[in-house]
Amino acid sequence: MSDSVTSVEKTKGIEPAVLESPRSIESPKGLENDKTPIDSALEKKLLRKLDFRVIPILWFLFLVSFFDRSNIGNAKIAGMTQSLHMKGNDYNVAVTVFTVAYVVFGVPANLLVKKFGPRILAIFMFCWGLLVLGQGLTKTTSGLIACRFLMGMFEAGFVPGCAYLIGCYYKRNEFLRRYAVFFSANMAAGAFNGLFSTLLQKLNGRGGLRAWQWIFVMEAIITMCVSLIAFFLIVPFPEDAKFLTPDEKALLLRRVEEDGGNVRHDKIDLKRVLAMATDWKIWICVLGYMAAEETASSLVAFQPTILKDLGWTATSAQWHTIPVYATAFVITLSSAWLSDYLNHRYLFTVFGSILIIIGWAIELAHKSSPGVLYMGMFFVSCGAFINMSTLVVWLCTNVGKGVKRTVAMGILTGFGNCGAFVSGNVFITEQSPKYPVGFGVGLAFGVVGLIATTIYVGFLMKENRDRDRLQGSSERVYNRDELEQMQDLGESHPDFRFQL
């Protein structure tokens, strides 16, 4: 029988991926040609098993990660700046160096996850746990700054690594609702982080440690203990999934293969990584993600302060943040479920951006009405978390799989976090409680996010139309070797269609 197949002409200018080895994440031998219908009952059983094994441990790790990332703000309130004799912009530097490291090391850290497997996430976590402990025991400002930078370096690969791992197990129209569940740990942590730190401050003076030190020390102990357990619970990549039966694994790999955009274990080298990093899709999504991150970071850092400035006590302000995050949790998960059901992303990012714009507009317009201002926070929180979770998955599913997806996730979550730079500098203390600059910048970023996703979907629609036209008008015959190279094109394969 001839080894040739019929396909469309290779897209002009596309360079095939460099093949590293015959090892593949393709389906087992013979399964790639299996055209028998998938048993829906077996598929549902597999999905239930994956949902139980893949998501919960990552959710809990993200919860702990968020506590570690944001505890410096609680330590400041508990007296850290006075104990370390911090002056001028010392605190801002300590906050900023974390984000700098997060941006710089996002891609390299995620490539390590790709190369060495998901268990390295637990190793990252143990290392940053040690650095959280270092923050609690340091006696100098320079020691604190050094620990924060190194902590950002180890945390940089966590969220993109988790996104990449989840995406390896699910089809494109199943991915968002699972990632949204994982991402909801962010909202849970935002709701209870302040209250948890308040409880830890009651240890003030115990063991010769001050309240702010106990915040770091206790959260460091929790982080390191959790990381040791997680090392054995984090699932491997699908091709190494020993928790599945042979039949379940075969079904999983077939689903992954049929979902499209698949590549084999393509080689990691600097030239290819730099070429992948120039993809316009990544950077337009970075802009949209940055816009949502600016809003989310504003909430985390300043929502309790804003509520306190409006007349609530510190404890009451912390309690009032819980309904905001709880509402965002429900709306984000509902949006994710509906988006997966409809297999559509763009209109949900429009919805999120409109919520952000409305929310910040309320904050700007009603400067002396605590109840109305509180309502505005519900809008901005829902919009920010909808867009952050949706954009990660939307980009992830539109860059194929393999190294390209790894690079894209590292850039998106790394550079997207530059929104935190903005939020940390626009809420000016002297403008409390009206914060016209902070609210105005948030509103502007909501508009930027809306424009970015609109440009993104416009180009995707054009590319899909071009591929439809080429596929309908031009065909040629490829031999088997050429077809194998075509498989390694990922989303550049002419049969691939971008998710809108």
Q: What is the CATH class name of the largest domain?
A: Mainly Alpha
Q: How is the main sheet built? A: 2 strands, antiparallel
The CATH architecture term of the largest domain is Up-down Bundle
Given as residue ranges, the uncertain stretches (5+ residues, pLDDT < 50) are 1-33
CATH homologous superfamily classification of the largest domain: MFS general substrate transporter like domains
Mean of residue pLDDT values: 85
Number of helices: 20
CATH topology of the largest domain: Growth Hormone, Chain: A
Q: Briefly note the structural class of the backbone.
A: mainly alpha
Beta content comes to under 5%
How much helix is in the residues? over 70%
What global shape is seen?
A: globular
Number of domains: 2
- Kindly report how far apart the N and C termini lie: 39 Å
Give me the count of strands.
Answer: 2
Which strand order do you get reading across the main beta sheet?
1-2
> What's the alpha carbon Rg, rounded to whole Å?
24 Å
Helix and strand element order:
EHHHHHHHHHHHHHHHHHHHEH
Organism: Talaromyces stipitatus (strain ATCC 10500 / CBS 375.48 / QM 6759 / NRRL 1006) (Penicillium stipitatum)
InterPro entries: MFS, MFS_dom, MFS_trans_sf
Domain Major facilitator superfamily (MFS) profile: 54-465
GO cellular component, one term: membrane
Question: What brief labels describe this structure?
Answer:
2 domains; Growth Hormone, Chain: A; 500 residues; disordered N terminus; two-stranded antiparallel ribbon
